[in-house]
Structure formats: structure tokens, C-alpha cells
Amino acid sequence: MKKTSEKEVYLTIQALQRMPYYLHCLEKAEEDGIQTISATSIANELKLNDVLVRKDIAAVSSTQGKPKSGFQVEGLIRDIKEYMGYNDHKDAVIVGAGSLGRALLGNSEFEQYGLSITAAFDISKDLIGTAISGIKVLPIEKLESYCAENGILIGIITTPMEEAQKVADVLVRAGVQAIWNFAHVDLELPPQIKVENVHLQDSLMMLSYNIHRNEGTKEEA
Amino acid sequence: MKKTSEKEVYLTIQALQRMPYYLHCLEKAEEDGIQTISATSIANELKLNDVLVRKDIAAVSSTQGKPKSGFQVEGLIRDIKEYMGYNDHKDAVIVGAGSLGRALLGNSEFEQYGLSITAAFDISKDLIGTAISGIKVLPIEKLESYCAENGILIGIITTPMEEAQKVADVLVRAGVQAIWNFAHVDLELPPQIKVENVHLQDSLMMLSYNIHRNEGTKEEA
DNA sequence: TAGATTGTTAATCGATTAACAATC
DNA sequence: TAGATTGTTAATCGATTAACAATC
Q1: Which of B85, B81, B80, B63 is nearest to B72 (CA)?
Q2: What is the pTM of this model?
Q3: Can you give the distance from the CA of residue B66 to the C1' of nucleotide D1 in angstroms?
């Protein structure tokens, strides 16, 4: 079992999910002109255990922290970004130029995560040929050839749920590596394809539950 | 420590997060005309351990499963919906009628989770007075009074991140119980206020990581 | 120096899984 | 009846936390 790189520390999924929070926290610190930061203070800020934060950071940081002062804010930001793959440029297409698709197209923040959306696809004759936030809307028939020819890595699905699986199949045939799925279905995909689901309904469900429980236990106080 | 209701089984956060998946699975079964379903088959479908599924279901189901046949699909759907609070009607407002806000306003699926969006708020003179998907856009100055007077339970924040905290403060003053936050900031809120964050950036980060790792370990095969 | 902070090893805690008796 | 499936109790597993020596 040979290592593929000098540092091959795998984070648990839980630890991974904390990374965005560390990054937010560090970027806020950087804005405030703070140069070094301790795991302890990050932990306090995020209401996490300090040893937990120290372990997570140790796994991604290229340098050790210094007792008394902590970690270099700037270096740590760089390390997390590198670890998370922000520095890789990733071309993406968006399928479904409805209101959600348009909202994503208008979001310029994604560029800083290495994501560029290079084209949008739709079935609507009215939309085809137009440009949304500077990005052309092409007919869905061209999806497969476009992705294959342009080496598109990520397909973003913002179609109605009925179309999502069909679109996913086309994207896979065209060679995308990952799918960012906003349609409210669980896609059936070959195991090598990475998926990230954004299911607003599930999020709403959690919100609903919290309100519900809250009301049910009012008498507790 | 007296119980507030006959069934006071608290699910772990992990179990809660599995509920939407059970519900999807059950609704699919119902569509296919299946009347009873076993925990084992749900577990297979969702690639989970069967005992895990059985425990989760036991916690929310009002009836016991029958050996050999399993659970009533319809009853179980009803129980999960009840447990998660879908049956409570919840009025909401949306703050920020930009592209994301508009996408949410156009989403009629939310109604089935008990959520109705009754008004939208924005600062843009061009938008104020117009209606989006049949919902009026009001000036942001009216947010507090509107929520207080109409007993709004949920505030949905789709503003730019700079405005989000300010908006949240107003919503809290106006008496909302929960905030569905789409702005990329962690809001500071009183402890009794429930928040559900939808941070697309974090989701994108996970996608980015998965692609990055995938490429880094190609030689593994 | 003293003390804040680091990283590591061991203990704890809690979720998941395995084993098994009960039952339709 | 036989066997699929249930629910429960005990074992396992893995993540988090506690304790502590090292160090700037």
C-alpha cells in the first residue's frame, strides 16, 4: 500500500464538512488584519472543541502550529483551499435555465472556488440563443457534444425533477466527473461519478421539524 | 421529568436527516401501488443497515410493523409528515427579491411542506409594487410591521451577505421563530431562533474536494 | 521564567451493527 | 409449519473529548 503523496491524511466526512467553517472564520480574521490565530480561538468562535479543531487543522496544514502564537492565517487559508481543490480550474455547464438556473448563473462568487460556468442548456425556444449574465443558452440537443468537446468536468442540474435523470445520463455519457444536483431526486449514477445534492426540500423539512418540536415543548420552561 | 406527550422519542440529528430519504422512498413505493413495505427493503433501497432503518421508523411510527409484511406505506408516510411538522401551516416572508429569491417564490412544491410565502421584500424601487409568481414585493421598511401584524413564523433571507445580519435582526424583532438563510454568512441569533442554512458555497466546496481527491488518486487502480 | 498553545495518547461517549428471541 | 420480518439487548466501531508532556 504505497502512498501517492507525502501527506495522505484522510479526513472524515464530518471533518470535511467543518472545513468551510474554518475557512470562513480564517477569512474573517484575515480581513480584520489578524496574522496568526490559535486553534483554541477558532474553536471558541465556532463553538467546537479545541482539540477537534487542532486535529482537523493538523490534517490539512502544511506547517505546524507554533505554541503560544498558533497558525499563520494566510498560510492556513492557502492550505485549506489547496486541500479542498479550489485551485483546480473546473469548467461546468448548467442544464435548465429556469429561475434557479438563472440564479446560479448570476452568482459570480463561484469563480473563487475554481468553478466557471461556460454554457447553459434548455429546451425552451424562447431562451435558446439568449444570454443570461453573459452566458449563452444553447439547445439541449447540443449538451452531449458540447461537454465532450470542451472537456466539461461538472454538470449542474436545475431542471424539473422529471428530467433530471435523463439529463444526468447524458452528462455521464459526455464524460463529466461530477454532478451538482438541484433537482429533488436521488440520481442513479455510476460509482465513479461524484454527486453533491442540494435538496432544498430536505432543508425545509429540518426547519419544519425544529419549529414543530419547539412548539410541542413550550411548557418545558 | 414528566413527558409532554405519550411518545417522546427524540431522534438523533443523523436519524432526522435520514427522514427525508425514507419519505422519498415511501412516496415512490406509494406511487407504484405498494401497500406494505419492510424496513429491510427500505434499507436495501437506500443502502443503509436494516436495523438502523427499523429503529428510526420505530421512533416515528404510530403503529408497530408486522412481521413478514412490514409497515403500511400510507400510514408511515402520514406519521413521518406529522412527526416532521408538515401538517403545521407556516407563513413565511422572503427578503431579497433577486434571482434566488425569485426562484424560491416560483417554487410551488414548498406548499406541501406547510410553507406559504405571503410576501416578498426588497429595497429596489423597480421591484417594489410588482408581483412575482403572484406574490407582492413590498418595501423593506415595512418588513418589521408586516411580520409582526401577520404573525409570520419564518423569514427567508436571500439578500447579499452584507445585508443578511441586519435583516435577521429585524425579523427576530418582528417575532419570527425561524430563519431559512441562503446568504453566505453565519448569522448571530438568539438561541431560541431556529436557523437552517443553505450555503451553496459549502456544497460546492465538497464537490470540489471530491473531484480533487479523485484526480489525486487516479493511480490507485 | 511562566503560561499559552501545541500535538499525542488514552478514555469516553454515542451511533451503528450484530445476535437473537418473538411473531405473523 | 417455515421463514420473513419484527423489536430488543449486547457488542463494536469510530468520533469526540480529556489528560498531559513538549515548546515557543
Answers
A1: B63
A2: 0.89
A3: 19
**Measured distance CA(B36)–CA(A12) in Å, rounded:** 37
User: How confident is the model at residue B45, as a pLDDT?
Assistant: 94
In B, minimum Cα distance to A104 occurs at B100
Determine what percent of chain B is predicted with pLDDT higher than 70.
Answer: 93
Q: Determine the Cα–Cα distance for residues B45 and B109; give it in Å rounded to an integer.
A: 24
What pLDDT shows up at residue B186? 86
Q: How far is the CA of B24 from the C1' of D7 (A)?
A: 24
User: What is the per-residue pLDDT across B191-212, written as a single tens digit (0 to 9) for each?
Assistant: 999 999 999 998 999 999 999 9
Give residue-wise pLDDT tens across range A163-187.
999 999 999 999 999 999 999 888 9
Which of B85, B214, B219 is nearest residue A194 as measured by Cβ atoms? B214
At residue A29, does pLDDT exceed 70?
Answer: yes
* Mean of all residue pLDDT scores within chain B: 91
CA nearest to nucleotide D19 C1': residue: A51
What pLDDT, on the 0 to 100 scale, is given for residue A7?
43
Amino acid whose CA is nearest the C1' of C8: A55
Q: Are the Cβ atoms of A114 and B208 closer than 8 angstroms?
A: yes
| Residue linked to cell 467553517 | A21
Nearest nucleotide to B50, CA against C1' atoms: C17
Q: Do B100 and A103 touch (CB under 8 A)?
A: yes
Whether residue A171 contacts residue A109, with contact meaning beta carbons closer than 8 Å, is answered with no
Question: For residue B24, which residues of chain A lie inside 8 Å, CB to CB?
Answer: 186
Sequence-ordered list of residues with C-beta below 8 angstroms from that of B201, at least 6 positions apart, any chain:
A20, A109, A110, A113, B184
Beta-bridge partner residues of A180: A156, A196
User: Do the chains contact at B20 and A200, CB–CB below 8 Å?
Assistant: no
> Is A125's pLDDT higher than 90?
yes
Shortest distance between the Cα of B175 and any Cα of chain A, in A, equals 13
The residue that minimises its CA distance to C1' of C6 is A67
Q: Flag whether pLDDT at A216 surpasses 70.
A: no
Which residue reads 420505530 in cell numbers? B58
Contact A170, A144 (CB under 8 A): yes
Residues of chain B scoring pLDDT < 70 = 1-9, 215-221
Cα-based torsion angle of the residue sequence B80, B82, B85, B88 in order, rounded to the nearest 10 degrees: 150
Q: Name the closest residue on chain A to residue B5, using Cα atoms.
A: A216
Closest listed residue to residue A106, CA positions, set B108, B98, B166: B98
